Amino acid sequence: MASPRPCRPFVALAAVLFLAAGCGQSRPSAHTAPPSESPRQHAASDRETATASEATVAEANPICRDDQAIRESERNRASCFHLQPGVTTTKVIKPQVALKSGKTKSGKVGKTAQATPKTTAKKGPKTAAKTPPAPKTKVVQTTGLCQPQSLIYARCRTGFKTCQMGNTSPVEWFACARKNGATTSTPTVGAVIILDGNSGRNMPTGHPAYVEEAHKNQDGTWSLRISHTNYDRKCHLDLDAKVLFDPKRMTASFESGPWGPWAKNLKALGFILR
C-alpha cells in the first residue's frame, strides 16, 4: 500500500502567509559566511542571495525595516565618510577711478568757473591742497561647503532615496517623508532621527542622525546610539554618541560625544523610515 502524500495545499498556504507577513521580527540572513570569508566577500554573497520574494515584500512595505540594509550600513559605515574640506576661492575687486570734475568734454575749464568776484575771496595763509586717499583693492575669500553634509551622510548610511528635492533641509525631508507615511515617533534601528530647527544653536534647518542602536528603558525613554556628521559646521564625524530620547516630550539629550556637554532636551520631530 502506498504511503499518503503530504497535503500540498497547506504547504502553499503557509508560504503565502510567510510572504504576506511583511515587516515582522528581524530575521537572520539566509546566507551565513564561513569564518574564512572576508567582509567584502560576505557582503557580495549577501547581495547575491537576496531573493525576488524579499524584493517584492520590500516594495509592498516601503517603511519596512530592511535587516540586510542595516547590516550593510553597520559594516560599511566608514565608506560613507571621506572628509572633503570646502574649497576656498579668492576674488580681487579693483576700485573704479572717478573722473575729475570741473571740466567740460573738451577738457577746458568753463567760463562759470572764472566768474567768482575777487571781493569774496579772503586772504589767509597758504595751505597745501589735500588729496583724497587712493581707494584700496579688496580681496574677498569665500570657502565653499565641506562634505559630507549631515543630510548627505544620513542618506548614504540608510540608502533612503525618498524626497530628494535638491538642496533639501532635514526639516523639509521629514515633512515630505511624513506625507508619504514614512515617519514614526518610535526609535528604530536603521532610521534617521530628525532634530527640529534651532536658531540658537546654529542649526535653523534641523539636523539628522543615523540610529545605530535603540533600547527601550523601563521608564519609557529610549537609549540610542547614533552617528552624525557636520555637528561642528566643519563636516567632522561623530560616531556612536549616546542619546536619551523621550517619546512623551519628543526630546533628545546627548550623553556623550562633542554635543554631550550642552545638547540637552533638543526638540525632535521624529524618525524617518525606509
Q: What does this molecule look like?
A:
The protein has helices at 8-20, 39-48, 52-60, 67-75, 150-158, 170-179, and strands spanning 88-93, 138-143, 183-184, 192-195, 207-216, 222-229, 237-246, 251-254, 266-272. The chain has a domain at 46-81 and 144-272: endopeptidase fold (from Nostoc punctiforme) (Alpha-Beta Complex), CATH 3.90.1720.10. It has six helices and nine strands; from the N terminus they run H-H-H-H-E-E-H-H-E-E-E-E-E-E-E. Strand 7 and strand 8 form a beta hairpin. It is 22% helix and 21% strand. The chain has 274 residues and is of the alpha+beta class.
List keywords for this structure.
274 residues, alpha+beta, endopeptidase fold (from Nostoc punctiforme), six-stranded antiparallel barrel, 21% strand
- Helix proportion of residues, in percent? 10-25%
Radius of gyration: 33 Å
Fold-level CATH name of the domain at 46-81 and 144-272: endopeptidase fold (from Nostoc punctiforme)
Number of strands: 9
Q: Give the topology string: H per helix, E per strand.
A: HHHHEEHHEEEEEEE
Give the C-level CATH assignment of the domain at 46-81 and 144-272.
Alpha Beta
Strand order of the largest sheet: 4-5-6-7-8-9
pLDDT averaged residue by residue: 75
The tally of helices reads 6
Dominant shape: elongated
CATH evolutionary superfamily of the domain at 46-81 and 144-272: endopeptidase domain like (from Nostoc punctiforme)
- Unreliable residue stretches: 18-63
C-alpha termini separation: 55 Å
Can you summarize the main beta sheet? Answer: 6 strands, antiparallel, barrel
**What percent strand?**
15-25%
Give the structural class: alpha+beta
